[in-house]
Automatic annotation (TrEMBL):
Belongs to the acyl-CoA dehydrogenase family. GO terms for molecular function: flavin adenine dinucleotide binding; oxidoreductase activity, acting on the CH-CH group of donors. This is Acyl-CoA dehydrogenase. GO terms for cellular component: plasma membrane.
Amino acid sequence: MNFDFDADQVAFVARVREFLAEVREWPDADDIMCPERESDSILADTPARRAFNKELARRGYLGMSWPKEYGGQEKPGIYEYLLNEELSRVGAPLIGKGVGCVGQTLIRHGSDKLKAEFLPKILSADVEFALGYSEPHAGSDLASLRLRAERVEGGWMLNGQKMFTTSAHFADWYWLAARTDFDAPKHKGISLFLLPMDQEGITIQPIETMGEHVTNAVFLDNIFVPEDYLVGELNRGWPYICEALDYERFTFYTYSPLEEKLKVLKGLLGETKRNGERLDASTEVRHGLARLTADVQMAKMLQRRVIYASSQGRVPTIEAAMCKLYSTALHQKLADFAIDRLGADGLLHKADPDAPAGGKWEWSYRATALDTIGAGTSEVQKNIIARRELGLPLEF
Ligand SMILES: Cc1cc2nc3c(=O)[nH]c(=O)nc-3n(C[C@H](O)[C@H](O)[C@H](O)COP(=O)(O)OP(=O)(O)OC[C@H]3O[C@@H](n4cnc5c(N)ncnc54)[C@H](O)[C@@H]3O)c2cc1C
């Protein structure tokens, strides 16, 4: 079995690393590359990060897997994964929401008008999207969503509430799922729409999470959406959302941050002394680090299985579920291990000048819970594995 990348892929990674080394020299590099900013590396919420995305676009890193007729390069999806692996290693904004979830869906199912309006802007990094799926009563059971889209002359009238919409406070456009048929079975009455975020009738309320990642509740009050901003076919939103989620699980869950965190933790435990002894001199710490090293390799292999399944033309649903379940839990395990070994000092907040490693591990302890929830909770991943890999019956 050979898990190596081919020569072109290896050369591609080298070019990305060179580019990121150049960005390291930019005056605002610390605002772009924030490996310590847990859980929000997909965001581009500052002028520096937006400028970085424009540079990614200029260098041809956006839309690599798109067909040439839409400005893409028709490269296999692995290149987008490899790019994200390197971006997440340094904590830079990841690609995916625009070129992946929105772009890929528009290419496959969007009208010529929507393609012409949005695809060039995605390729040039001139548009930010927010994804509006979850609602107060529809998270894991997303197909129960209730935000109402009613037919009116010339389009649709939207009313209702979305929950946990990340980026809503700075995105330009809302990619939103709404119920268009209340009588059909729940998976068959959902449609996707595109609407500008900055309009009267849309109210955005920030939700602070314990990991300091800000997400939002969004209220829509009589929002008119013209007919031609319906994405694809009416009542076909559910399969489109599932396709986009598969893309998200493929490209977003990179393993490189685990590798980097382990390196940092190993260094920290080596330089921290207790009773005159290095922490990593104790058998317990040495064995713990050895165990974590094996775990990180395990996460890498699970990730490689996702890539392999995709390269064989399969939708890697089960592989991606295993990878997300395992690697998000491992992020928590690394933080637990660090906090336990650092003792009471490890609990100091990053605002405290005495916090070891600038408070990174205390923050990590709080923030790593978020990834076990977003894009499908750990229980949902277990359900996928139980049902599709093990063939076990549904529990209900
Ligand atoms: C930081 C963050 C960012 C997010 N960003 C976005 C975004 O941009 N856009 C968006 O639309 N959504 C977003 N979400 C929402 C996210 O997708 C949902 O939080 C997630 O799907 C869980 O839904 P819920 O919060 O309603 O919890 P629920 O579905 O109500 O689950 C509550 C608990 O019950 C468990 N549970 C539920 N069903 C089952 C079951 N069948 N079997 C066993 N256990 C079960 C869950 O695992 C969980 O522990 C974000 C969430 C977070 C935390």
